[in-house]
């Protein structure tokens, strides 16, 4: 179920590029619309209210804004998985994630201090494409013994089948605020509710 305000914004300000790329940097991942982020956070709260979440996790960088807004509203800590190991981090979990937009692999890390078996995690990100970031977070949570209660995405590109990959990995609740059915011929087609 797409948020109407998000749907309208994608159609108005989104840009399509060859290769299944949807650029939303006017309002999500470069210049941000805080009011839109708040509306998205409110919707995530409704959808995950029944889950015993005690921590929100995202991956840098574009997932940070919606995760922070959600963490603020739910009064929960937000931890972001880093794409580069800081020199001050020694005890950590790590895995490899492939970036769809950058077409490269990243070794991502999270401190063992901020993820453990007591954590019930909600993963939040800007896009669900092939599911690579989500799969990386699943691996990190498995290493830590943490439980993933669900995953939330602002925009899902349904035609890239990331949801199926995450479901095969055991994620039962995946919520997307807007689902893109197709970007064929650079025409943005959003799934109707």
Architecture overview:
With 193 residues, this protein is an alpha/beta fold. It has one domain: Rossmann fold. Helices cover 29% and strands 32% of the residues. It contains 5 helices and 10 strands; from the N terminus they run H-E-E-H-E-H-E-E-E-E-H-E-H-E-E. The protein has helices at residues 4-13, 34-48, 64-74, 132-144, 162-168, and strands at residues 15-17, 21-23, 55-59, 78-81, 92-99, 104-111, 120-128, 147-157, 174-182, 189-190. A 6-stranded mixed beta sheet has the order 4-3-7-8-9-10, with helices on both faces. The longest helix is centred in the first third of the chain and has 15 residues, at 34-48. The protein is globular and about 45 Å long. The termini are close together. The model has no long low-confidence stretch (mean pLDDT 90).
């Amino acid at each position: 179920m797409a948020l109407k305000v998000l749907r309208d914004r994608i159609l108005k300000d989104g840009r399509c590029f060859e290769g299944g790329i949807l650029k939303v940097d006017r309002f999500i991942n470069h210049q941000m619309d805080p009011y839109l982020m708040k509306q998205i956070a409110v919707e995530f709260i409704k959808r995950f209210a029944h889950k015993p979440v005690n921590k929100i996790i995202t991956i840098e960088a574009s997932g940070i804004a919606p995760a922070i807004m959600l963490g603020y509203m739910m009064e929960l800590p937000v931890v972001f998985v880093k794409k580069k190991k800081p020199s001050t981090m020694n005890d950590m979990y790590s895995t490899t994630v492939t970036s769809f937009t950058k077409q490269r692999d990243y070794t991502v890390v999270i401190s063992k201090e901020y993820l453990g078996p007591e954590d019930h995690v909600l993963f939040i990100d800007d896009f669900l494409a092939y599911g690579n970031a989500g799969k990386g977070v699943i691996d990190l949570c498995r290493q830590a013994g943490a439980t993933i209660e669900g995953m939330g995405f602002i925009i899902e590109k349904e035609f890239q089948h990331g949801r199926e990959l995450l479901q095969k990995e055991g994620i039962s609740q995946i919520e997307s605020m807007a689902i893109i059915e197709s970007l064929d011929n650079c025409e943005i087609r959003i799934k109707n509710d």
